[in-house]
Here is the input.
Amino acid sequence: MGEEVALIYPHFRESAPVETEKLFPPLGIAYLRSQLSARSIRSHVYDCTFSSFSQIVDSVERQQPAIVGIYVMITMTRNATLIAEELRKRLTGTLFVTGGPLPTLFPGRFSQKFDVVFRGEADSTFARFCQDYLSNRSSPGNIPGLDSARYPGLYREQAGKITSNPPIHNPQSLLNKLPLPDRSGFDHEHYQSFWRETYGHTQTNIIITRGCPFSCDFCSKPIWGNIHRKPPLNRVLEEIHDILGYGYDRLWIADDSFTLDTGYLKAFCHMMIREGLPISWTCLSRVDRLSPELVDLMRKAGCVKVYLGLESGDDRTLRLMGKRATVEDGRRAVSLFSNAGIGTAGFFMVGYPGETIESVEKTLSFAQSLPLDEISVNVPFPLPGSPLFERVSGIEEDADWEKANEARFVFRSEFDEEFLKKRIKDTIVLFQKRRERGEYLR
Here is the structure.
């Protein structure tokens, strides 16, 4: 037998990637591996991004792991299921475990394909479970120590009995003690080649803060939850140095709300300026709580681009979305970043339940009026776990969630899908032409 635990990230890069494709190593897997290593448990990462289905299942079969863990995001459900089904045929004595946003929300669906489901922030819990499972010489049909206090988030169905322990969001005190994510198992050469050839730099991801206290109608937060937690900056600095050691020159700060705590943001910027690290960064940003001084500080600290959830050009629609921001807030934020020389990208949504054709057109005009470098326009996507998902009707149970970037309704909408597709396409084409000419509507 090889490594005891196989960690699988079931994302296969499509043969014809979209123009705006961005590839990042799976940080969830990196967190799991670092904690397995801390408990002296051997593991191997199978990142499917640059591999084929047959390569992955053949490699895992050769390893003969005692435990297979498969991380599942909503767009990877089909791949994860197919991999688990094929490996079960080949590895009869192996325990199959899954976790991630969708298993957290619907553990019963996944318990039919997996022996154990972990919900919530399971990075420390999963490692502890693996240690107990291996040390007790357990088997898939005989797992000792299933008690809620020891394995929060564990869900298991066996012989008609359901074990369902509530998931947790780890407190800051625990997060401060966790080892840094172990990035050593990823194919950095392939990731860097992709970024260098596509965008002219080498970018990788980092998660600094966890949790978002806002409650946008379309948002789902099954893993990180609502409590905003921030690590000490010396720990962040240590992780950035680790990333630099792999040869990257840009960070994608993948936090939901990195600019939420302006005091923490300022301290981070001052640290980056003081350390003079040879790395730039991009992040998601809210459109409020910004000032010219703060934005200028971000630029001096290496921020080269921000992604803004502008969503709509109509204040009534923004209220429907629960955005707690106005159209003017969005316009001002874009202006602040643009004037500071920081690139901007805007996310927009049209066809929201309760809005009108008039508000759709206001949004498309708003997107054209801003000095943005990039826009993304789509129809609402009711993520499981979001208030929108609970409210809309006619959601396709067998919807192809892998097509999340397609302007296609997966629920019953009063809007004409073909009309919106055409308007979105026309808007993006016009935006690109005006960008090429350096023009903006005002």
Remarks:
- The radius of gyration is 22 Å.
- The chain has 16 helices and 13 strands.
- The domain at 201-437 is CATH 3.20.20.70 (TIM Barrel).
- The chain has a mean pLDDT of 91.
